[in-house]
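Hi everyone, sorry if this is the wrong subforum. Our group has a chain we'd like a structural model of before ordering constructs, and none of us has done structure prediction before. Sequence below.
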Amino acid sequence: MDRIEITVREEGSRADQTVAAELPELSRAAAQKLIEEGNVRLHGRTIRKSERLAAGDILTVELPEAEPMEALPEAIPLEIAYEDEDLLVVNKPKGMVVHPAAGHPSGTLVNALLYHCGDSLSGINGVLRPGIVHRIDRDTSGLLIVAKNDIAHRALAEQIAAHSFTREYRAVVYGNLRESGTVDAAIARHPTERKRMAVSNAPHARRAVTHYFPEAQFAGFSLLRLRLETGRTHQIRVHMAYIGHPVAGDPVYGPKKCITSLCGQCLHAGKIGFLHPRSGEYMEFTAPLPAYFTSFLRTLRTEAEL
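Answer:
Right subforum, don't worry. Here is the predicted structure as tokens:
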């Protein structure tokens, strides 16, 4: 069950708009259908799709069982950075989808986790997303935390909501950035292209904050370290494109002439930190840059480093 808290910025927005914006896997029509079927509630009561929301309102969204589709265990190798009775930290490879969905019924991280963990995964996100506390894009590599039980899941989700979860990325972007900076720009689903997100002033747009720190400059490119304050869908990719420095290899937000040899954006979730849900101890993990990333850097270094 998903929980959506309405902010001052979203006050006055329609219920169906807000649900579609907060759950990017849903189209506007799918959000409306959920509301009409009584699967979206405001403080426990059913609502109309056109109902206007107020700051402080709490929506709960219950997603029905997805099709007759079931996530099945698959013997897919996992790179595990840490594991205990409550959670795992997994280093996801580029190209792996996090959970089954239309077009990707198998071969996902969830299929691998079911094989590795059996029934020891939290059930808060349903049968197709067991244990999944947060996601990274298919073609983004790096660290993800997975909850083994509902208590751990709730505790970790609360840290993400409170922006106390450490998430740092490395990226190669177009252009030369020499100064650190912050992008503070709300994000919503693109008004006409449903698979894209965009910086937006729409009432249902969610605040998004990305801090970036240049590490090196090359001919036409920069290597950045980025820290997420919030975690919106495609946040880094949207924000970097918004300031004129899209992520190299990004086929959605980058230039039309994409660097196809990268097979997707050059973006790696290299650091994750959190308070352990049982002990309260702060834990932090790092993952080295993967081969595709270091290979691209070597290519860039064939030119004189600026």
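For your construct planning: Residues 199 and 278 are 37 Å apart (CA to CA). The first strand starts at residue 2 and ends at 5.
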